[in-house]
Design a protein that fits this description.
mainly beta, Jelly Rolls, 2 domains, 5-stranded antiparallel β-sheet, 4-stranded antiparallel β-sheet
Length: 153
Amino acid sequence: MTRLLRESNPIPGEIPGFLPQHEDASGSFVVTGERNPLPISNYLLTNSGIYVPARGTNEGAQKSQSIGANTFNVRTLSVNTSPIEITGSLSDKRKMLVRVVDGIVYIGPQNTVTVNNGFPILAGETVVFEISSNLRVFGIAATHQIIKIMEMD
């Protein structure tokens, strides 16, 4: 176990303060800064060992990020009382994750899905789809709902 790091040049007569830092996987304390940010969810670690910030658009959807050989895209979709296709263009993707933000969204393989015959996904639940060339997923809701979709290759 290591001790927290303190500043090396305190004001004369003052007790040295602690440096901004976090504990790494080995149990050592690492000074945090611009070149070594805190490990938070909006930074991605590349295969080269470099942290890069996750970028977003003005609408709040995350732009595609490249992490080694994998690419993913996150988008938001409104689901209403008419069936809407969730799959979109997935020709270069291998997996699709669908998460319901609030309420219930019902899904099915055709645009005839209803709240009576669709499979329900409850708020906070995530469904994972393995992509095939003929995969089509449609969604419908009893009232306006928001879903988050992540597509990965």
